[in-house]
Amino acid sequence: MADFDKNDMDTFCRAPFFKGLARQTVERLFAVGDCATFAKDTLISSIGDNFGTVLFVISGLLRVSVCSASGRRITFLLVKEAEPYNLLGPYLNRSRFLEAQALEKTRCLKIRDRDYLKFVEQHPAIVHNILQWIGKSLDSANSRLLDLMEKKVETRILRVLSTLHQKFGSPLLFTSQEISEIAGTTPESTLRTMGLLREMGILSTQRGKIWIHDPPALKDTEFGAIKI
Amino acid sequence: MADFDKNDMDTFCRAPFFKGLARQTVERLFAVGDCATFAKDTLISSIGDNFGTVLFVISGLLRVSVCSASGRRITFLLVKEAEPYNLLGPYLNRSRFLEAQALEKTRCLKIRDRDYLKFVEQHPAIVHNILQWIGKSLDSANSRLLDLMEKKVETRILRVLSTLHQKFGSPLLFTSQEISEIAGTTPESTLRTMGLLREMGILSTQRGKIWIHDPPALKDTEFGAIKI
DNA sequence: ACCGTTCCATGACGGCCGTCATGTACGAAC
DNA sequence: GTTCGTACATGACGGCCGTCATGGAACGGT
């Protein structure tokens, strides 16, 4: 418990995932877990292994992605502070094909599968939060499916920029490569699109940084938003 | 309760979703629900409404899809007997953008959101089943994302045919239109691909029917399977 | 200050596949 | 049996966008 301070718990209590939970419940969650710190670029779980540990990011950023046979990476999720990773892992005793990596130095609350399962049993209130979170993830995945089937690359990139802006603010610290891995396209297409947006005065770019000047212009909403 | 017979419960008890649950639990699930029968082509929930009811199909088939602005339909899920629909709806008190429709005459066990929430609270064992089911759905959605970003149309159609064959056997009672709505392509592309497969002797087709002669030939697995 | 690496930027090309068009065949209804 | 609606089948065209190539700029390490 010495690993965590009161501040960490405060942050969690205010975060969307923990909404509606008693502070005591959050404290007990901390009590059943350990602190784990991953250096930048650490591979936390790789494809094929049976990763049953649940993580809650305290500070830093995790990327959940796969690297396909053709060498292209596809990013499913970015996990930031007070967000959970692998909520369902302990319930699926089979290897998943996802890979998690720390994009920067990341400190996590780490909970072993058995402790997690026991905790959920003993604190049924959290089931509500878990299901809500997963539900949003599922809706988001479906929205992205729709985007990929329906929309052109430019629209998808717009959506990704908009979503990232909502989640991380401005400037965005991502390269065109990283953007393209989320949008499902190539760095070249991303750069071309951002070139257009720059001409339109909607954003400006620097090596690894993107300033969004006109967030509403990115909104092209049809149906639900995606969640990254 | 007179709406259901012992046979219905037997089917459910044997089904994957209910694996590991006591028969008594299944019986009580039936007890809190009503029987609902939908005629073919009935729209069960449409886009934008706040559909909080959980359904378990007893017989028949439901399609979960969206119809995009450009008029193209995209099918996310086919729900067959002993499978659940809208497991998470009661936990997400916001309108979802999915639309459910009965593809044939379909009989369901219908459970109102409040009854469902109460049931889950009183029967924590089912949480495990729910999370497992949702976990598979999430993995499946991610697999489809990967397919759409990575694979060409032919491969996707192959995957869809393979998955449908596993779930429904042979012959498949789907039109090229319906296949394309799952694979995220057009009927023309689907027909062209199936033309090739027919020449290779892997399948044969008739109006609305597809016989798969060589299921292994359809397998081109990389990473997880999709689930339709 | 030099150099290597990484990222940005932009042009040219080509192929996949979505769109349109046309014709055929099957099945249901009367 | 005739008719009509729907699905199958296949060809032609065109555009989006992925790939390759080239050059320049920014940053870090020594």
From TrEMBL, chains A, B:
<dbReference type="Pfam" id="PF13545">
    <property type="entry name" value="HTH_Crp_2"/>
</dbReference>
<keyword id="KW-0805">Transcription regulation</keyword>
<dbReference type="InterPro" id="IPR014710">
    <property type="entry name" value="RmlC-like_jellyroll"/>
</dbReference>
<feature type="domain" description="HTH crp-type">
    <location>
        <begin position="151"/>
        <end position="216"/>
    </location>
</feature>
<dbReference type="GO" id="GO:0006355">
    <property type="term" value="P:regulation of DNA-templated transcription"/>
</dbReference>
<dbReference type="InterPro" id="IPR018490">
    <property type="entry name" value="cNMP-bd_dom_sf"/>
</dbReference>
<dbReference type="InterPro" id="IPR036390">
    <property type="entry name" value="WH_DNA-bd_sf"/>
</dbReference>
<keyword id="KW-0804">Transcription</keyword>
<keyword id="KW-0238">DNA-binding</keyword>
<protein>
    <submittedName>
        <fullName>Crp/Fnr family transcriptional regulator</fullName>
    </submittedName>
</protein>
<dbReference type="InterPro" id="IPR012318">
    <property type="entry name" value="HTH_CRP"/>
</dbReference>
<dbReference type="InterPro" id="IPR036388">
    <property type="entry name" value="WH-like_DNA-bd_sf"/>
</dbReference>
<dbReference type="InterPro" id="IPR000595">
    <property type="entry name" value="cNMP-bd_dom"/>
</dbReference>
<feature type="domain" description="Cyclic nucleotide-binding">
    <location>
        <begin position="17"/>
        <end position="120"/>
    </location>
</feature>
<dbReference type="GO" id="GO:0003677">
    <property type="term" value="F:DNA binding"/>
</dbReference>
